[in-house]
Amino acid sequence: MVFSIAAASGFGCALTSELIAPIETEKTEAIAPQARPNEKRGEVRIEALSKIYRSSAGEVKALDDISVDIKSGEIFGIIGRSGAGKSSLLRVINRLEKPTSGRVLVGGEDIAALNEKQLVALRRRVGMIFQHFNLLSAKTVFDNIALPLRVSGASREHIESRVSELLDLVGLSEKRKTYPNRLSGGQKQRVGIARALATQPEILLCDEATSALDPETTRSILQLLRDINKKLGITIILITHEMSVIREIADRALVLERGRIAELGEVWRVFGAPRHEATRALLAPLRQNLPDDLAAILLKDKPEHADYNQIVALEYTGENGLEPDLARIANALHVKVKLVHGGVDRIQGRAFGRLLISAPSEARLPDFEPLTKGENALVHNIEVIGYVPLPDYSI
After folding, report:
1. CATH, domain 292-389, list 3.40.1030.10, 1.10.10.10, 1.10.530.10, 3.30.70.260
2. How many C-beta atoms lie closer than 10 Å to residue 148's C-beta?
């Protein structure tokens, strides 16, 4: 009988016969994924996908007309608020759920048309790591990683060689005889990653893989996933509710909202110029808000009987390679400016973010507008957000 581990969060918590394929043991397998004659190895194409759950309470449309191509070897992030459809989409990609309509093609194969034997082979090609690790507490690190190989009939020699390579890959060689209760959360997730790689998958699905970890450990796990992606050329599809995870690791991102595509594109575009309210809401925790002392004195209208400075917001979206240059902005305005608040981040080599500057009253909005236009533009968007009476924020 063939077994594997399924996830407690949405994938079931039992050992099931669906997720592990038999291993060929006639020859030693390298740690890199096996070559496949199919040129579309690692690609996922989702075409007009919908998923409806039916119950006595009625129908729930979890996914509604989703179409997206995930490229071979890329790191693709799927993000959305609770109930957006992230887990349903992942379950359909792994064929734990059948679509109500539409198609999912993995490596060019329509997975809804696969028979039982072909489905077992698919599951070998698609690895899975989980939010809560799903390790067997009575098994050592070595045995947890070896489980997919052992229950599939791999030889003892192959298991020893393969698991040793994977332990070295995830940096846990010295923990091979350790039990899970002696491991940190990050170490447990490394074991989960090694186990998911045991059958040499071409796609790795990550279900909230870092949400149970502290920020420092999260960074180390994301770095490990990035290294695995580069070394093995494996396609990584991760779902998360944390935009910081998408920013750190993904090449492209899909934002889901109520089962539909809210936003899709390169990560720098999604972060730099979000078009949908759902994306802006997800980005809100990362956005620099007004500091309390400035918010307390900021006026919407110009003071009539007092000198004042203007508080001006400069926005950078990543387009056209624009970088913040306050000296050039001051020279273009022919006034002295001061940085008050804000921050600029970099994603995929592009700057995005929001800076607040203080400018004297003689700098008028018509003077600002040319800064956003033409080949010599210095900022993507500029807006006067309020006024502060002097001497507050004087320059």
Report:
1. 3.30.70.260
2. 27
CATH topology classification for 4-284? Rossmann fold (3.40.50)
Rg (CA), the chain: 26
By CB neighbour count within 10 A (0-12 exposed, 13-18 middle, 19+ buried), where does 47 fall? middle
Q: Is residue 76 within 8 Å of residue 251, measured between CB atoms?
A: yes
Enumerate residue ranges in the chain where pLDDT < 70.
Answer: 1-39, 365, 391-395
The enclosing H or E element of 109 equals strand 109-110
What pLDDT is attached to residue 119?
87
The model carries a pTM of: 0.83
* CA nearest to 49, candidates 103, 108, 114: 103
Structure tokens at 229: 């992606």
Cβ–Cβ contacts within 10 Å for residue 97, how many? 20
- Residue-level pLDDT at 25: 38
**Around Cβ 82, how many Cβ atoms within 10 Å?**
7
